[in-house]
Amino acid sequence: MGDANQNSNSANTPDASSPPLKPRDNVEDVEMQEAGDLDDPTSCPFTSPSKRVVYSDRFIPSRAESSHLNYSVLERDMAAAEVSKSGLSREDFNPAYNLLLQSELLGYRSSQPISPDKHVQLEQLKSPRNGKRKMLRFKSGDCEAPSGGPSPQSPYSKSPLGGDGVLGASVPMHRRAPRRIARAPFKVLDAPQLQDDYYLNLVDWSTQNVLAVGLGTCVYLWSACTSRVTKLCDLAPSDSVCSVAWSQRGTYLSVGTHLGDVQLWDTQKLEKLRTMGGHRVRVGTMSWHTRLLSSGSRDRNILQHDVRVKENYVSKLVGHKSEVCGLKWSPDDRQLASGGNDNQLYIWELNSTSPLLQFKEHSAAVKAIAWSPHQHGLLASGGGTADRCIRFWNTTTNMALNSVDTGSQVCNLSWSKNVNEIVSTHGYSQNQIIVWKYPSMTKLATLTGHTLRVLYLAVSPDGQTIVTGAGDETLRFWTVFPGPRSQAGENDANVSFMRSQIR
């Protein structure tokens, strides 16, 4: 009997070498085990003791060794102990990085800067303040502001770290330095007889890097590559130059005269190709299309000249009630913007003789017109002394977008083709040049130097340099825009304060 009981006890005792994960017995089998039926191998006549298989309906592993989850939110004290243990033994563990995550991602705030001592950093991680925050609760804002403290950092901030975070006092904020714009011109040219007339356009810069300037009765060409000055034509004694405009390829120059003619010149051969009439009085503004030349006159008309045909003009645009002093084709050559002394701004479509749009918000003459090269249909216009505003329009939706009071007469506008910025030149009473950031219209630089109204403006082919002209008979060259991205490291040119004469 003693041997039988010993054998029976040994049969009921689990083997120490059995695996920790084992299938759970069926409920009926458990009841039968309690009755002692299944312990006896002879109780089942169909299965031998060595080949018996017990089936079950569920498989539940035992996680006794890993039942405690070291989640820092659930078990703060034990997690902190594990952080301390692993932080002292592992070289790749950085408590400061954990404090950074808690501060920026979970919103924890601390008035104490990060200590350089690793043990102190671990104590900061174990601080009980970290367990007071409810993790899963509704909040209306992006980040809850601390009571009595400053407003939370905007998620659109340039810096990835909040200024009032746990690392605000110890981590430097790496922000891109603002672009430096020289406040002085790097070159000045004397331009005798450069007229002080708001309604004229006497300066233009070609894609071949040649500057055309109308001085009195003559037109001069100045090469920006060689600084060589060439006299193109002389209209004396009965006529004078009122406007100049380069063709898009920079090989032909159109000259508008006081008598109302439009002359076309080949600048390489220095010869006049033809003269196109049609206007009765001076031609103060011109703009080139791919195949058309538009001219605006004091006779209030806009003529479309096709230089390929023998007729003087192919169409006439009638709408303005006073002198046309501003013309500009859009970058896609689909729309023509015209401004006049009647304070009106018109938008004309190609092959149409009636205006598509009319804007009447300006309260003075509209000479300054510029199309954005970055956004389709975005147009900027500037008003004269009684208006002083730069206004922005969407010509695709016929909407006024924005208006900025500059405080002085707006004479010219030009967009940068490399960045979303715009430059304006002004007359009464500031005589200054302003570089604006669009669309915020914050001033990046204000340039002074001209003693009279800055009536003329042109941009270099690379988009970095502008030239301005005024009634003080000077042309001043300024580097105001960054160059193309491929030339980002070549923006700092050698400054030369040379002063020379254009003729």
What can you see in these coordinates?
The protein is mostly beta strands and 503 residues long. 10% of the residues lie in helices and 32% in strands. It has helices spanning 2-12, 27-35, 76-89, 95-104, 118-125; strands at 187-190, 203-205, 210-215, 218-223, 229-234, 241-246, 252-257, 262-266, 271-276, 283-288, 292-297, 301-306, 315-318, 324-329, 335-340, 345-349, 357-359, 366-371, 378-383, 389-394, 399-405, 410-415, 421-426, 433-437, 442-447, 454-459, 465-470, 474-479, 498-501. A hairpin with an 8-residue loop joins strand 12 and strand 13. It starts with a helix and ends with a strand.
What's the short version?
The protein has 503 residues and is mostly beta strands.
Throw out a few tags for this protein:
503 residues, mainly beta, five-stranded mixed sheet, 5 helices, disordered N terminus
* Mean pLDDT metric: 79
Instruction: Characterize the biggest β-sheet.
Output: 5 strands, mixed
Structural class: mainly beta
Report the sheet-strand fraction.
Answer: 25-35%
Tell me the number of strands. 29
Describe the strand arrangement of the main beta sheet, using strand numbers.
26-27-28-1-29
Low-confidence runs of at least 5 consecutive residues:
1-47, 138-148, 161-171, 486-498
Q: How many separate helices?
A: 5
Calculate Rg over CA atoms.
Answer: 41 Å
Distance separating the two termini: 134 Å
Tell me, briefly, the overall form.
Answer: elongated
Helix content: 10-25%
